[in-house]
Amino acid sequence: MKALEGIKILDFTHVQSGPTCTQLLAWFGADVIKVERPGVGDATRKQLVDVPGADSLYFTMLNHNKRSIELDSKNATGKEVLTRLIEECDVLVENFAPGALDRMGFSWERIQEINPRIIMASIKGFGPGKYADCKVYENVAQCAGGSASTTGFLDGPPLVTGAQIGDSGTGLHLCLGIVTALYQREKTGRGQKVSCAMQDSVLNLARVKMRDQQRLQRGPLKEYSQYGEGIPFGDATPRAGNDSGGGQPGRILKCKGWENDPNAYTYFIIQAAVWEKVCDVIGKPEWKTQEGYAKPPERLDKLNEIFSTIEEWTKTKTKFEVMDICNPLNIPVGPILSMKEIAEDEGLYATGTMVRVDHPERGEYLSVGCPIKLSDSPAEVRRSPLLGEHTTEILSDVLGYKGDDLNRIVGSGAVGDVKAQAAE
Ligand SMILES: CC(C)(COP(=O)(O)OP(=O)(O)OC[C@H]1O[C@@H](n2cnc3c(N)ncnc32)[C@H](O)[C@@H]1OP(=O)(O)O)[C@@H](O)C(=O)NCCC(=O)NCCS
């Protein structure tokens, strides 16, 4: 049995943020019914196409384990079918632009009227307020949520990060909101509205930078490299390069092969507790007792010299050798792994974190599996649906349309052409 078996999700999501959420629910066993515009579908199906004619990896990697129904929600018959779906489903998830669902005629009030037990979960760029009507994409959220202003080097511009903390990060938050609301419904019998703003989700993930914003009012942030370099702080949390966020000095250092390999680097933290071991490993045993080096506060104005010296050592080792030497000594280091190295790591396939999936249009592709492991509800990754692949199946099995009634729906033009043939 899967954890969310029996839960039906009306998946009205598109692009990345919403689909991240509903994919997790599908992996946990929910029946996720993805509603897509006839003949078009989720825009990502045809974005960043690498295999002509096939659904893109952008789409396939975010829509595993779902079923797809084509449905024009602006057509009268389409609205009838959508109403039936709302009656049947436990959760409606959407990430349309602000107001889109109301314009379709399905406000939260109307949805509750149709099914008081339903949970409606929405992602928008911003919460209520002056920007509530804005359409928002990943990098806009990273900027509005405070991440970009605190990422990058002090002497460079703000930077966005490759991890999709705006889209996928918000999808994760929404997923937790949904299962929490399902849990509350067990006791109250009522559904509720779950809302996540992308700005809020990014800010939640950048929480430690808001911590530093307040600490700044009481004095300089001593663990930031700029403190040791004598560079004054301004009035906002600055960019800290590759400093570690937790008070222990850390940097990214070159390793053997860095001249030709852009990822021949390691992260290296000089935790106070293992300072003596660091000194021994890099051949500087005198720093263990030498004044100016022995105690953490004394080292703060020498971090550039210290890390340059450590780097002279790491440059003689591969990033994996650095790991092999430092790990047994509890010196925290981490190789900078490329996506290629991760894709080739068989250990990740063994745990299901990486998976190989077969697809009728594109053949085998790699995907990231479910990162959350439930011992009683293991996630089995199945390929994403083709556009409208399950239209007739959902109309008949989930909604109970049969015979003439089914033909009426199929003939109305509300569910796309392909399925009209399938019903004949
Ligand atoms: C992502 C986003 C910017 C995309 O904007 P967009 O491509 O213009 O898409 P919209 O959400 O505005 O939807 C476009 C239209 O398609 C319509 N539509 C969608 N599915 C439909 C269907 N099955 N049948 C009929 N119409 C449909 C919508 O009703 C909307 O029509 P309207 O403008 O007349 O109200 C926007 O959806 C958004 O801001 N979402 C919330 C934040 C978010 O999730 N952003 C990150 C995405 S990864």
TrEMBL record:
Top EC class, one word: transferase
GO biological process: oxalate catabolic process
InterPro entries hit by this protein: CoA-transferase_III_domain (IPR050483), CoA-Trfase_fam_III (IPR003673), CoA-Trfase_III_dom3_sf (IPR044855), CoA-Trfase_III_dom_1_sf (IPR023606), Formyl_CoA_transfer (IPR017659)
Catalytic activity: formyl-CoA + oxalate = oxalyl-CoA + formate
Amino acids binding substrate: 246-248
Domain of life: Bacteria
Pfam families per the UniProt record, alphabetical: CoA_transf_3
A GO term for molecular function: formyl-CoA transferase activity
Assigned EC number: 2.8.3.16
Keywords: Transferase
Residue positions of the active site: 167 (nucleophile)
SUPFAM superfamilies: CoA-transferase family III (CaiB/BaiF)
Binding locations of CoA: 16-17, 37, 95-97, 103, 135-138
Biochemical pathway: Metabolic intermediate degradation; oxalate degradation; CO(2) and formate from oxalate: step 1/2
Sequence similarity: Belongs to the CoA-transferase III family. Frc subfamily.
Summary of subunit composition and partner proteins: Homodimer.
Function: Involved in the catabolism of oxalate and in the adapatation to low pH via the induction of the oxalate-dependent acid tolerance response (ATR). Catalyzes the transfer of the CoA moiety from formyl-CoA to oxalate.
Name by which UniProt lists this protein: Formyl-CoA:oxalate CoA-transferase
